[in-house]
Amino acid sequence: MSKTVYSLCFMCTVRCPIKVEVENGQVKWIEGNPHVPGIEGSLCAKGAAAIALLNDTQRLQGPMVRTGPRGSGQWKRVSWDEAFDLVAKKLGEIIEKYGGRSVVLGERTNLATHVSKTFLRCIGSPNHFTHDALCKGSVNTACRSLFGYTDAQMGIDYKNVKHIVFYGRNFFESLEVKPINFLMEALEKGARITYIDPRVTVTATKAHRYFMIRPGTDLALNYALIHVILKERLYDVKFVDKWVHGLGKLEEFVQPYTPEWAERETGIPADRIVELAREVSKDKPSVVFHYGYRGASHTNEIYLRRSILILNVLMGNIEAKGGLFFKKGPGEVGGKPARKLTEQEGLPRVEEVRFDKVGTESLPLPDPNHGVPQMLPYAILNEDPYPIKAFIVNRFEPLHSIPDRKLMERALEKLDLIVTVDVRWSDIAWYSDIVLPESTFLERTDCVQQANGLKPQMFLRRQAVPPRYDTRPYSIIVKEIATRLGHGRFFPYETMEDLVRWQLEGTGFTLEDFEEKGFVSYTDSQIFWDRENGLKLKTPSKKIEFVSSLLENAGFPSFPPYEPVLPPPEGRYRLMVGRCAVHTHVSTQNNPYLNELVPENVLWINTREAERLGIKNGDLVEVSSPCGDGCVKAYVTDLIHPEAVFMLHGFGHTARFAERSYGKGISDALLQENKSDMVGGSPALDETIVTVRRAYRKA
Ligand SMILES: Nc1nc2c(c(=O)[nH]1)N[C@H]1C(S)=C(S)[C@@H](COP(=O)(O)OP(=O)(O)OC[C@H]3O[C@@H](n4cnc5c(=O)[nH]c(N)nc54)[C@H](O)[C@@H]3O)O[C@H]1N2
Ligand SMILES: Nc1nc2c(c(=O)[nH]1)N[C@H]1C(S)=C(S)[C@@H](COP(=O)(O)OP(=O)(O)OC[C@H]3O[C@@H](n4cnc5c(=O)[nH]c(N)nc54)[C@H](O)[C@@H]3O)O[C@H]1N2
Ligand code: SF4
Ligand SMILES: [Mo]
Description:
The protein has three domains: 64-134 and 337-443 and 467-521, 3-Layer(aba) Sandwich (Rossmann fold); 158-322, Dimethylsulfoxide Reductase, domain 2; 572-694, Barwin-like endoglucanases. It is built from 23 helices and 27 strands. Residues 2-58 form the 4Fe-4S Mo/W bis-MGD-type domain. GO terms for molecular function: 4 iron, 4 sulfur cluster binding; metal ion binding; molybdopterin cofactor binding; oxidoreductase activity.
């Protein structure tokens, strides 16, 4: 028996549409969905390794309850009913004693996030968070400060771009399949790439221009670019006059930030800065300055992201071909989006201060729909704003994804209950009291994906094969726990198919409509708004706010003076981190195929600096920061700025049952200090200064 199933990959968060060939209950082949433009068969290495995850005997195989001390690796396998009863009993006791707010649920945003939010509202907790702030919180806030939309409500028309500038956006390694294919199309038509990074990445090698910038100084470069663009009137005057609020203030502000000044700060020659400004302006409006995710992440990140967005606006690229666009939802064409459980009548609202205090004076601007996860250890340890007792973790790895692992461990130690839902033995699963294994994406149907964009669409993840082990979909797990706590009525489904049908009610589409191609479209044509008169901006002024009411009403300046970045003292380096093409964050290091390709991380260090420290390529080095230390092999290279060292994120796992990744490499979270951009919401992951020495002990 063979069948073809259209679904969505979930080896990483990008969710590429896929076509899965199944024979006799086995997945034989996965490729990109051929019906989706920009995908057309493509799949990355991680996606191709999904079969290895499916068949991995080292993944979670059934519900587990801890029997020894936390993290000791002593476990008892239990039935689902026992696991659900236990979680419900413990949660019930905690809620009774400390209130619903003592329960925090954290997850990487996923298709079932509305299910989690519904659960928390039922139990009276305001404490849902997603990974968003850890990934791009300051980008989110910067977008809202200028346009009134979040970054998730905006997109980039890669296919038609003529020049794209990346600030540490390592596009060809930290990848998303569709944007890469679209940009490749643009490159074939003659588009140019400028890449800026203290480290030579694969993306740098594909670029037409590369700047090895001094780490942490991108904002200085941007102020100089803006200075030149305004002084030489290289911007889209008509667009800016019509839509921008605060150009005069910006002009005044950038006066002192000349290219010569920026050369001293960034190490990039002044004439090359001027050359870039002039060159990109010739291609406007089809020019994009990529606002990025994780590259260049410092305590003033919000202002870097704003400066990048301002450069886009000066190019007049908003709603232009080859520029930035606002994602269009079904409402644009009179359609209805899939329903969410949170929209149900009678579901309680929770009006309490959040654990991270987002929305209060201490963190007024980060997006309350996502929260600020890196505040969790402080909230638990200081019982501020109130005691937190239980942590439910779904598809999230706080021990690696929140900086300062030891701080996080101390906080977890204080909790009465940790429950983790995952597909594999993550470190947090290893550290939990109860572990509930989710079926992998090939084994489950998921909630509907509402895919807004130039063309609003819906996609569906469909079960390709039955679960290999005793696992369940997350939405079913939550329903079971909620039902035991007396809230079953807000989870009106028995199976995932029931839930999808419920979501689709009123949209005019049915579950069966997804069978032919894996998706449905609300319209056939791309929707651009009229750039002359029809931008539907959501700021108070209905303009693009260079002078931002969001920031200024909260007491933050729109343009704070630049603060110089001092070079680290001798023998010390700025720690930079990032991803590689064959791993997803912390998820795939134990995947048999991907582990073989990149089994551990290494520390990139500049050749001259390494010589000074007596370090040779492949030597074991000790890296220490104010909050942790560890040993890793050195990779001695000219391809990194002398002030920085670099390592891949996601290694140094401690869960013993994941034997291939156990103890391999070092975790960046062990070294990074838990500091944040308190305006934008992101952690400053590239801010920690480390000491590097030759190690005389074993890793
Ligand atoms: N293969 C793969 N692809 C992925 C992911 C994955 O896990 N694996 N994850 C996805 C996700 S969630 C994200 S957020 C994106 C992340 O995509 P990117 O934002 O491109 O992130 P990183 O890989 O973290 O690369 C960050 C780069 O910033 C550079 N950098 C550090 N400091 C500075 C600085 O001061 N200035 C400049 N200009 N550069 C600096 C680092 O050297 C590094 O090369 O990737 C997505 N794609
Ligand atoms: N120190 C440090 N911290 C970082 C970063 C960094 O570079 N360094 N990068 C930041 C960025 S950009 C991001 S996006 C975040 C990502 O942070 P996380 O969301 O924590 O990382 P992921 O590796 O994407 O996945 C987390 C967990 O989801 C599990 N998982 C995978 N598939 C499924 C599934 O189908 N169901 C369930 N229930 N679980 C599943 C994985 O096994 C893994 O344990 O981290 C941020 N934090
Ligand atoms: S980028 Fe790769 S791993 Fe991520 S969803 Fe797409 S195919 Fe899967
Ligand atoms: Mo991310």
